[in-house]
Amino acid sequence: MENNNLKGKTVVITGGSSGVGLAAAEAFAIRGANIVIVARGKQGVMDAVAACRALGAVTVGVCADVSVATDVARVAEEALTMNNRIDVWINNAGVMASGKFEEIPMDIHEQVVKTNLFGYLHGAYEAIKIFKRQDAGILINNVSIGGFMPAPYSAVYSATKHGIRGMMACLQGEISNHRHIHVCNLYPQLQNSTGNLHSAKYSGFTIDIPPIASDPRNTAKKMVGLALHPKKDQFPDFTSLAITNLYRLFPKLIINTASAALRLKMRYNQNNEDEPGNVLVPSRDPHRIYGKPKMPSANKTMGLALLAGLGIGLALTVIGRRTD
């Protein structure tokens, strides 16, 4: 970003009413950017707009479904009314459905594809057209480490994240002859956000936010960093990079072990009611940043130690097998 200054720049954030999206909206608001918050639910949008205005930022909200191309085109039109340009577009809106593949309803599977993959396609489609007309602009995609590794019992979600990564890698090549246009991909791990609370869950699937979950505000800071200093690909913290590299080293062992653990947990939760979450309808309360109260640093240190121990254990297991 020119002069490392975001003041007065127009920033569009999809999925901006909760979680990482809301954290990003507040982070850019503090920097003096003009904020366009996009989400499906009217109340969530209104609350997020009020939060950013309280920070002194010029802010508008647009109720839109990113899975619908005409909705996203309307978002672009409304954003342009602020100062006739869009400087940063953040593709962040996403949904997740977890459970046994064949037990998740087909309409849920299809909407995960529409929201995640088509949603990022629609956002990029509008943003790139405007950026080329301006000869400047930054597209930031919240891809997640799911772009590199599967999320157990979340097959369609995993497919969308791999698809987003592939699509954006191609777009990076297409705009490589435009010096001031950038496509940036961010790969965070599981967040301590409302995403887990809002996701669809079937087959007795449940998962708690673990101690190693990242702080959404820290992920939002990385988005601000990419707006100021664009990079093609970035892991926002050590944990996201470490988990991805562990999977690269032991792909079958990681996915099979994680799947086995969840399978056991699901067996004991067979009486749980299926929950479609926010896949087909706007997210219900809570519309906030954190899924759980901000975790003490001691808990996170313990989580990182467990992660390191897991990596060492896996390495020793593989070495032992090879020796045998």
TrEMBL record:
Q: Which residues cross the membrane?
A: 302-320
Cite the GO molecular-function annotations of the record. oxidoreductase activity
Q: Where is the signal peptide?
A: none
Family membership, please give it: Belongs to the short-chain dehydrogenases/reductases (SDR) family.
Entry-linked Gene3D superfamilies = NAD(P)-binding Rossmann-like Domain
Keywords on record: Membrane, Oxidoreductase, Transmembrane, Transmembrane helix
Q: Which residues form a coiled coil?
A: none
Q: Which InterPro entries match?
A: NAD(P)-bd_dom_sf (IPR036291), Sc_DH/Rdtase_CS (IPR020904), SDR_fam (IPR002347)
The record's Pfam families line, in alphabetical order, gives: adh_short
The record ties this protein, via PANTHER family, to: DEHYDROGENASE/REDUCTASE SDR FAMILY MEMBER 7B (PTHR44196), DEHYDROGENASE_REDUCTASE SDR FAMILY MEMBER 7B (PTHR44196:SF1)
Q: What is this protein called?
A: Short-chain dehydrogenase
Q: Which GO terms describe its cellular component?
A: membrane
